[in-house]
Amino acid sequence: QVQLVESGGGLVQPGGSLRLSCAASGSIFSGGVMGWYRQAPGKERELVADITSTDAYYADSVKGRFTISRDNAKNMLYLQMNSLKPEDTAVYYCHYLNRYWGQGTQVTVSS
After folding, report:
1. pLDDT, tens digit, for every residue of 93-103?
2. Do the Cβ atoms of 81 and 13 come closer than 8 Å?
3. What was the pLDDT predicted at 92?
4. What are the pLDDT digits (tens) for 33-91?
5. What local confidence, expressed as pLDDT, does residue 1 receive?
6. What CA–CA distance (Å, rounded) separates 36 from 110?
7. Which distant-in-sequence residues (6+ apart) come within 8 Å of 48 by Cβ?
8. Are 7 and 21 in contact, with CB atoms under 8 Å apart?
9. What is the phi/psi pair of residue 20, to 5°?
10. Which of these, 35, 31, 30, 50, lies nearest to 4 by C-alpha position?
11. DSSP string covering the chain, please?
């Protein structure tokens, strides 16, 4: 069984930064895809970024501002978010293999 726990969300002003973390436990394969989705109120859940052992993918809306990384030795996944915009406001979820999900962490970008 796999468990994922996100942390690091909060309230930040436009232009600010946050770093999300996702702690994974259980049977995690270092090459298995992990990533972040987000869901804003009244909107569909959307993929933000994914990472494998060799590649990273970013949604166009976050390219150049967000950086995804993982520490396989610690079973940790991160999302560094810079130059945050109000439209980045959402609940952010980490996933493993698009099968296991965390409970989400709220990110609010507002002045």
Report:
1. 999 999 999 99
2. no
3. 98
4. 999 999 999 999 999 999 998 999 999 999 999 999 999 999 999 999 999 999 999 99
5. 87
6. 21
7. 35, 36, 37, 38, 58, 59, 62, 66, 79, 92
8. yes
9. -90, 145
10. 35
11. --EEEEE--EEE-TT--EEEEEEEESS--TTS-EEEEEE-TTS--EEEEEE-SS-EEE-TTTTTTEEEEEETTTTEEEEEE-S--GGG-EEEEEEETTTEE---EEEEE--
Q: Which residues of 37-64 are buried (b: 16+ CB within 10 A; e: fewer)?
A: bbeeeeeeeeebbbbeeeeeebeeebee
Q: Amino acid identity, residue 108?
A: T
Residue reference for tokens 């439209």: 87
Indicate if the pLDDT at residue 27 is higher than 90: no
**Chain position carrying tokens 């507002």:** 110
Enter the tokens of residue 31: 């090459």
- pLDDT of residue 29 exceeding 90, the answer is no
